[in-house]
């Protein structure tokens, strides 16, 4: 009887211990679940601490070189090409004959026009003499003079056609592309040669609206060419567009003398010098990537007790990937630079770096 009672007590103790252990484990699991849930609710973000720094105010803009002059030389008359005197890569001067078009039929027309002119000269001389003696009327003499002028004009017209059988270069430069071979039949306007002049080139870039007021025509500009890192180039601004594009950028052209190494289509960077002295020192800046919906919005997320707080700041000039802050931040704040697309004002955050 006593043994049975002992077994019952021991069994009850074991059951109690098991129940306590299960309850304790459940409590720990619930705690862990709550902690995980807290982490799941947070959005991972990167941050930077706002600080003052010295900023290089040189403004850089990327672009490509384009020829100072380029043209597609075309035919002025219809006909069959009989000679092509240049090839791709040939250097040509303005007025140089590049190709000739068959002119046999035109030469026949020239001969006929010259014969008609001779007849008109003889007829007109006869009418001039007859008018002096009263043999013809003034109207007959005027008609004779008109026929002479028309005959002279016809000879000049045929001379123009003869001249047009020679396709001449409109500019000095290099044959970049040849689109014709002997035997080809061409028409007026048919492009036969592409000529480019790269003795000097134009670097075409886009300048931000915040910077365009700080540059001027004739200003000297340093040029860095990606594929020629050891060479130094300098150009001058020859064009600043009076109107921006849809992105509020202004097309600007910088003319650069070619030392023989530059080619149209090369990628380069124009470095525009600005001199603003002390105002460029000790400047409060934040990365451009920190702004919500672009720099123009002036909106940023800052860290506030483990949450993201949306604030409005007043921006100044843009220097590369840095934006000047005029008001709204004092320095020392942590500004969120990534993950903004997932954030709302007050969202819980987890700082990754």
UniProtKB/TrEMBL annotation:
Alphabetic keyword roster: Coiled coil
Residue ranges of every copy of the CusB-like beta-barrel domain listed in the record: 204-274
Superkingdom in the source lineage: Bacteria
InterPro entries hit by this protein: Beta-barrel_RND_2, MdtA-like_BSH, RND_pump_MFP, YknX-like_C
Domain Multidrug resistance protein MdtA-like barrel-sandwich hybrid: from-to ranges: 75-196
GO molecular function annotation: efflux transmembrane transporter activity
Parts forming coiled coils: 103-130
Keyword Ribonucleoprotein: no
GO CC terms of this entry: efflux pump complex
Ranges where the YknX-like C-terminal permuted SH3-like domain occurs: 284-350
The family this protein is said to belong to: Belongs to the membrane fusion protein (MFP) (TC 8.A.1) family.
Name of the protein: MexH family multidrug efflux RND transporter periplasmic adaptor subunit
Organism of this sequence: Epilithonimonas arachidiradicis
């Amino acid at each position: 009887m006593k043994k049975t009672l002992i077994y019952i007590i021991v069994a009850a103790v074991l059951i109690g211990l098991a129940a306590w252990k299960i309850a304790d484990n459940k409590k720990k699991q619930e705690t862990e679940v709550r902690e995980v849930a807290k982490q799941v609710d947070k959005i991972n973000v990167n941050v930077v601490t706002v600080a003052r720094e010295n900023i290089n105010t040189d403004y850089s803009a990327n672009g490509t070189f384009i020829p100072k002059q380029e043209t597609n030389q075309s035919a002025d008359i219809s006909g069959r090409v009989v000679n092509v005197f240049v090839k791709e890569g040939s250097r040509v001067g303005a007025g140089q004959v590049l190709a000739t078009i068959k002119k046999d039929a035109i030469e026949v027309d020239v001969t006929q026009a010259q014969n008609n002119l001779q007849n008109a000269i003889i007829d007109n001389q006869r009418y001039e003499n007859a008018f002096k003696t009263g043999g013809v009327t003034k109207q007959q003499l005027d008609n004779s003079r008109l026929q002479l002028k028309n005959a002279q004009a016809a000879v000049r017209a045929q001379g123009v056609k003869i001249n047009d059988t020679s396709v001449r270069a409109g500019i000095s430069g290099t044959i970049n592309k040849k689109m014709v071979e002997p035997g080809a039949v061409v028409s007026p306007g048919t492009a036969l040669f592409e000529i480019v002049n790269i003795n000097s080139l134009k670097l075409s870039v886009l300048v931000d609206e915040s910077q365009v007021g700080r540059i001027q025509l004739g200003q000297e500009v340093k040029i860095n060419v990606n594929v020629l890192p050891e060479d130094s180039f300098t150009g001058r601004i020859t064009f600043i567009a009076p109107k921006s594009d849809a992105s509020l950028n202004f097309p600007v052209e910088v003319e650069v003398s070619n030392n023989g190494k530059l080619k149209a289509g090369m990628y380069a960077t124009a470095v525009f010098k600005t001199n603003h002295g002390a105002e460029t020192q000790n400047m409060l800046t934040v990365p451009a990537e920190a702004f919500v919906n672009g720099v123009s919005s002036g909106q940023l997320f800052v860290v506030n007790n483990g949450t993201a707080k949306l604030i409005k700041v007043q921006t100044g000039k843009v220097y590369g990937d840095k934006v000047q802050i005029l008001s709204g931040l004092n320095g020392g704040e942590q500004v969120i630079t990534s993950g903004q697309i997932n954030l709302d004002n007050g969202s819980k955050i987890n700082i990754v770096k």
